Amino acid sequence: MKKTKALLLCLVTIVLAFSVAGCGNSEESSGSGSDKEKVEIRFSWWGDTKRNEVYNSIVDKFEEKHPNITVKREFGGWNDYWEKLATQIAGGNAPDVVSMHQFYVSEYARKNALLDLNEYVKSGVINLDQFPEPVIESGQLDDKTLMVAKGVTMSGVVYNTGLFDKLGVKYPDMNWTWEDFAAKAIEVDKALNTDDTWGADDLSGNFQQEFRYFVRQNGKDLFNDNGEIAFGKEDLIEWFTMWDKLRKQGAIPDAETTAEYPENIALEQSLFIRGKTGISFIPVNRLYLYQQQIKDGEVHEVRIPTKSGGKNGEFIEGAYLSVSAKTKHPKEAAEFINFFVNEKEALKRFKVEQGPPANKKMMEEVVVPLLEPAQKRTVDFVQETVQHAERAPYAPSGVNEIETAFKDTASAIAFGKTSIKDGANKFMKDAKAVLKK
């Protein structure tokens, strides 16, 4: 289902506009009395300590309103979460409600591991009346509703105004190029002028966000609608060459440092928060978490660099909720999803934890008045960048293996264990082999 520019503009208007649209409040749409049968469901998510606090508070409120339903909570870091979920799905013991992402949904959809929620949407158990159509469609695959959006987000590049002001470096422009990025990383590195600081983080191994933007700017994508690799070896060579040049210039960390500070490291320990790098790449829903760690200056975000004369790389990103196909309590799982995405008590805690919520009425009336300045910057960033976004095909089954192979290739190049050309050749061969399984 192709999203037109009109639909994307509709997303901006509906989700983020502050005019109140009349609609029934879902807060009174459901409720479970204490006389109902006692049920236990499991809910899993990824995140850090702060997100765990937010989600636990939402679950607590759900249990208060639904005294017959107990929710067992399971959570972990990003990498651990997906590894555990894959094992649970394979073993037939996945949680009833699972946090899902568009990078991985087809991996499980093609294994028939996720429940089609159309029945619960049509019956109103899950109320999507206040969801923009593009957001509803983003959770659908083969006419099945497999995900319901918790929040809509976009990726970008962050910097700390306090550090840039101290260094006398001008802020990045919202519409900058990869050439501008390289020049800015070099400028920041020279201004920092120490052996253990760098201009920017090394994101050469990020497959499904930064590299995806890059190939989309070349008029391609990671995959096509048939689940085949949609970029060429030449795109890999261009990508890895750019980062290799920055590494040799000292503008990004050496291979050993990057390995010591992986993307999934605790936020407070990251190079950016510690002031060891001046530029990093993150989904904008995490901006306020970065701001909480930065006391001197404001954390701001600009678009991921574009290619001179190239296309826009943006695509609508988000975090979702799905139900395991093997759940024994589908209605209760659906009720939990409805509470999470529609109820006032849930959304005033969620705020923009994984992007602005899709329910326009709750966004306008409940969430916006509660936002801190950094969270408002998140909303502003989504509002501006979503206008550049277009549909991105879902990743095929096997994307986890392909993503790992990409990271391994980037690491091997950084450590000098393989040449860029040989690394690109090997990756293409390995990725295509995964897709043929």
Measured distance between first and last alpha carbons: 27 Å
Helical/strand content category: alpha/beta
Shape: globular
Order the strands across the largest sheet as they lie in space.
2-1-3-11-6
**Cα-based radius of gyration, to the nearest Å:** 22 Å
Give me the strand/helix succession: HEHEHEHHHEEEEHHEHHHEHEEHHHHHH
Compute the number of strand runs: 11
What integer is the average pLDDT? 90
What fraction, in percent, of the residue positions are helical? Answer: 40-55%
Uncertain stretches of 5 or more adjacent residues: 1-34
The number of distinct helices, counting runs of at least 4 residues, comes to 18
Main sheet, how many strands, which sense, barrel? 5 strands, mixed
Strand-residue fraction? 5-15%
Overall description:
- By secondary structure, the chain is of the alpha/beta class.
- It is 44% helix and 14% strand.
- It has helices at 5-16, 49-65, 78-91, 105-109, 118-123, 133-137, 161-167, 178-192, 207-217, 233-248, 255-260, 287-293, 330-342, 344-350, 360-367, 373-385, 399-414, 420-435, and strands at residues 39-46, 69-76, 97-101, 140-141, 144-145, 148-153, 155-160, 198-200, 277-283, 299-303, 317-323.
- Helix 2 packs antiparallel against helix 14, helix 14 packs across helix 15 (360-367) and helix 17 runs antiparallel to helix 18.
- The two termini are 27 Å apart.
